[in-house]
Amino acid sequence: MDTLPLLHGPSMAKRPCCSDPSIAKTQSTMLPESDNDAVLKSFLAGKRSDRKRSSSHNAVVWPLPPDLMIKVFAMLDTQSVCYAAATCSFFQKCVADPLCFSNIDLITLVPKVNNAVVSSMIRRAGNALQSMKLGVLPPCTPPLFCSSEPLVYSIRNSTDASGASWNDKQ
């Protein structure tokens, strides 16, 4: 096979592999078992390199400056800020600012917030902490006036402008 020297050459470490999994799958079916690991490692290294290059590129060309993004994240609730931090490295850097955690709201429907979560939120907020809400919401019962039964009834027995029922038109 001519492709083995190309895959294991010294210049391969400098170039990321193609991020198309079908190419790696095709190559892995042609190679012996010992070479499959090398191809897989090379493929994964290429994907890591591509992610790193993309994240640095996105941070440079992001249309909004970091200080404006920090102000936007400061307006979000605590859970949304944590979700935003998990999406990309640029958001994670913006969310690291204590201003994003100045008003912490950890009120939940089920008791899932422990002392470790509370202490990490306080550490993230630092001196910018203005308020913190803790607790569990009581279980809510649906209001009586929001029943879906009248809506279902009115749809089933609705009539159009001619006066004929939709059920009669079938």
UniProtKB/TrEMBL annotation:
Residues 64-103 form the F-box domain. It comes from the Eukaryota. This is F-box domain-containing protein. SUPFAM superfamilies: F-box domain. The lineage of its organism: Eukaryota, Viridiplantae, Streptophyta, Embryophyta, Tracheophyta. It comes from Lactuca saligna (Willowleaf lettuce). Coiled coil: none annotated. InterPro entries: F-box-like_dom_sf (IPR036047), F-box_dom (IPR001810).
